[in-house]
Specification:
The complex is a heterodimer of chains A (366) and B (187).
Chain A lengths: L2 H10 L2 H25 L10 H8 L15 E11 L15 E11 L14 E8 L5 E7 L9 H11 L1 E2 L4 E2 L1 H10 L4 H9 L11 E2 L4 E4 L5 E10 L8 H4 L6 H11 L3 E9 L19 E14 L19 E3 L3 H18 L17
Antiparallel strand pairs in A: 1-2, 1-11, 2-3, 3-4, 5-6, 7-9, 8-9, 8-12, 9-10, 10-11
Helix pairs in contact in A: 3-9, 4-5
Chain B lengths: L1 E3 L5 H24 L6 H30 L10 H31 L4 E4 L2 E3 L7 H36 L3 H6 L7 E3 L2
The chains are: A alpha+beta (366), B mainly alpha (187).
Chain lengths: 366, 187
């Protein structure tokens, strides 16, 4: 087609036709932008996003800038996981093959204030990152409660809001959490544990439970619904609750360091296998106590280091970071944890100035 | 007067439309997954990583093909500003096609995450594990995603302008529809 013909074809479009076609183009752009905005949640302000969840978690007192927005107070540890090979018939995970694998972990309490008195944390936690020689990772965040407090992210958000600081008083509304438990019967098993389990003054004597269910996948592709627990090899030493308040802000950290000065602390990793009918998607419900339990190895915690410069500081203990042979279940908390932990990690890595690494004297440097 | 190829090669057209679908899927997956706590978060992110690396591989391939085969010339009567905007937008799109996956990969490296593509297959970390680096790359990844989407909207608007208003063969050069005739260009 010649240039002149081209012009002639342009001329053939009436002004109305041009306007109509421009409108079509505008419509395509508008609908595309609208679809993108919908996907991003801008048209649905009620959507529970990681940003909203983590904002609620960040408002429970103290200054969490630079820190994890939950389980904010904690300490790093390093050690090894010695797998005994007993899990290999159920899962092809490389760190369940008999052998010894390095671990970077963290003990914490489930609060939002990084300066809280750790001894007062009702929920204690252990996070681990176990690495296999082929570079695969198994990250797990576990709590000492036998069940989780809620089964879904929406309820967790409501519970978090109930713990948030009331700007009028500068404190959380003490009735709000009571109201939450009164209106959420699914949280009763957790509440009962919280009210009746003995308090102890150590991370070392507590069990740590995966709470969420996962799937073990064996060599033939067979899957098994499981939960796991780190079982302490020390028996718990109960301490009256009234005695805790006077024990100091960093009691658990000092306790851990002094215990490790006298030797390694160990936990047995025990995997519990579900029977048909056991819930895979409800972490508020314990499985019956007669379920098959297999001891699959030993975690040895060898050294503790303050978080500010510790090896756990810059890891996100996202429980969906799993090796082949272990997969998530349909528990809705797992995706929510992954998404919210990522948001918390993105925030705190941008806030290094608020939580500086400790400058080391030149003589200390290698 | 000289007669030139009026269309992109078949390979270039296939790469263009395949990658158009992949990149749009990628942007929608990205903006969806960072705004949800629901179980599809895990599905979306498990697609996002291997899809991004696939785009990186195809983008490098496509850039090589483009440098080898070139592109049909723009109509001679296209105003200079529009011709420059076209060239610039193509440079931006190529840059984003290559930069976005690299930034995503680098951001996971700096964040200390394993970069799992499928099963036990994972990519090496190509940057050190470092908070500041993670933070810069994480922010850049988000900002460039919006830039990418906006650039694609402009690209679509320009393509439709050529197809519906100017009807000058530019859209047909990539769309592969319409009569296969040589366009006379140049003077």
């Amino acid at each position: 087609m010649s240039h002149d013909e081209n012009l002639a074809r342009h001329a053939a479009l009436s002004p109305f036709a041009v306007a109509g076609r421009l409108a079509v183009i505008g419509g395509v752009l508008f609908i595309s932008a609208l679809a993108f905005a919908y996907a991003g949640g801008w048209l649905t302000p009620d959507r529970l996003t990681p940003t909203r969840m983590v904002a609620a978690l960040s408002d429970r007192g103290g200054n969490p800038l630079g820190h994890r927005r939950n389980h904010s107070k904690g300490i790093c540890f390093t050690g090894v996981f010695d797998a005994n090979g007993a899990a290999s018939q159920y899962s092809v995970a490389p760190m369940l093959v008999a052998g010894c694998y390095p671990v970077i972990g963290r003990f914490a309490i489930a609060v939002g204030n990084p300066d809280a008195a750790d001894i007062m944390g009702r929920v204690k936690s252990m996070a681990v990152r176990i690495v296999s020689p082929d570079g695969q990772e198994w990250r797990s965040g576990m709590n000492n409660s036998p069940v989780f407090v809620v089964s879904n992210p929406r309820d967790f958000y409501e519970l978090t809001l109930a713990q948030d600081i009331d700007p009028a008083t500068g404190k959380p509304d003490p009735r709000a959490v009571k109201r939450f438990f009164a209106t959420h019967p699914a949280s009763a098993p957790f509440a009962e544990w919280s009210q009746t389990a003995p308090w102890t003054a150590s991370w070392a004597d507590q069990p740590y439970n995966s709470l969420d269910a996962f799937r073990f996948i064996g060599a033939g592709g067979a899957t098994h619904l499981v939960r796991w627990s780190m079982e302490p090899t020390l028996s718990p030493t109960p301490v009256p609750h009234a005695a805790l308040a006077s024990m100091g802000t960093d009691f658990l950290e000092h306790d851990l360091v002094s215990r490790l000065a006298n030797g390694t602390l160990t936990w047995r990793l025990v995997v519990t296998f579900a029977e048909p009918g056991d819930p895979s998607n409800d972490a508020t419900k314990a499985w019956p106590s007669d379920r098959k339990r297999v001891d699959v190895g030993t975690l040895s915690v060898q050294k503790a280091e303050a978080e500010a410069d510790g090896p756990c500081r810059d890891f996100n203990y996202d429980p969906t970071i799993l090796p082949t042979g272990i997969a998530v279940s349909d528990d809705p908390l797992l995706a929510a944890r992954s998404a919210a932990y990522a948001r918390s990690f993105d925030l705190r890595t941008a806030e290094v100035a608020d939580y500086p690494y400790t400058p080391r004297p030149a003589a200390d440097r290698p | 007067m000289r007669v030139e190829r009026d269309r992109f090669s078949g390979l270039q057209q296939v790469l263009h439309w395949l990658m158009a679908i992949m990149v749009l899927a990628m942007l929608f997956i990205g903006v969806s997954m960072v705004s949800t706590l629901k179980p599809h978060f895990l599905t979306l992110i498990s697609i996002h990583k291997p899809l991004g690396i696939s785009i990186l591989v195809l983008a490098v391939l496509r850039l090589g093909v483009r440098m080898a085969l070139g592109a049909p010339p723009l109509p001679a009567d296209l105003p200079r500003t529009q011709a420059m905007a076209a060239k610039l937008s193509h440079v931006v799109l190529y840059a984003l096609l290559i930069a976005m996956p690299l930034i995503g990969w680098g951001m996971l490296s700096a964040g200390g995450y394993p970069i799992v593509l499928y099963g036990s297959f994972h990519l090496p970390e190509y940057l050190p594990h470092n908070d500041e680096l993670h933070s810069i790359l994480r922010t850049t990844h988000t900002v460039l995603a919006y830039v990418f989407f906006a650039t694609i909207l402009l690209h679509v608007a320009a393509a439709l302008f050529h197809a519906l208003i100017r009807r000058d063969g530019v859209f047909r050069a990539m769309a592969g529809i319409g009569p296969r005739e040589a366009v006379t260009i140049g003077r």
